[in-house]
Amino acid sequence: YTESQIKQSKMEMSEYIYGNVDIILDENRNRRAESENDHIYDDPHMSQDSGGNIWEEVPSMGRPGVDSSGMDISGRRSSRQATVCWVLLCVLLLNMTKEKNQLKTSYTNLIKERDQLETSYNNLTKERNQIKRERDELQKIFSAFKQAGTAGWTPFQSSWYYISSEVKSWEHSRQDCMNRGADLVIINNIREQTFLTKLKKSLWIGLTDKDIEGTWKWVDGTPLTTAYWMTKQPDNFKEEEHCGEIHNNNNVLNWNDMLCATKLNWICEQET
């Protein structure tokens, strides 16, 4: 055979197969059926009657795993099981997604609470440090006052007072107070005025109008608002009296203006 003849033969065979595919498939089925029938007599569940008919000794429902239509029941069961598994998997994934979102929300809330607690902790730490500094400062002041108390300091309300045992001018008296870490007394209320009156001494106080005549100010620069002047005082006698004193009498209205160079006892005040 030539090469062209071989090709022609192959083409004719292909056309025959494609044109007679149903016939070929039927023949294959018949051959498989004959092969199966040859083994039926070996099956203990099969029997043959006197007429040559073959009977299957199985329940009328048919062979196990096959329904009346010939469909494999195990295949359908597998398909149903796969579907059930797929649905269960979807439900599981949905639940896992919800739980993940809940956990994410809880985590975010915990982060916020942690940040708030951290901020509160920092604020409390600052407040604690501030209180500690104030406590230490108060302890220093208390220690200083305790030591000063044995050197002539007297406590009253929220201040300590030092009453001098010698006399000096207003300027030198103030300088002595400043050397002690204090200043000439500033009288803020009637209770303090009464306390000083009971000392029964003429004392320099921290009051002056040296800057502007008639405008009395305390040594801290605040203007005089409540005064306890004696009658007809201040009078600026000879226009030279620019410093204030507590005059020695039992009346709480006992302030007087004096010549600043006059030598008097003085009283220092140190606030706590």
UniProtKB/TrEMBL annotation:
InterPro entries to which the protein is assigned, alphabetical: C-type_lectin-like, C-type_lectin-like/link_sf, C-type_lectin/snaclec_domain, CD209-like_CTLD, CTDL_fold
One Pfam family of this chain: Lectin_C
Domain annotation C-type lectin: ranges: 156-269
Name of this chain's protein: C-type lectin domain-containing protein
Keyword Coiled coil listed: yes
Keyword set, alphabetical order: Coiled coil, Lectin
Species of origin: Esox lucius (Northern pike)
Keyword Coiled coil part of the UniProt annotation: yes
Segments forming a coiled coil: 93-141
GO MF: carbohydrate binding
Domain of life: Eukaryota
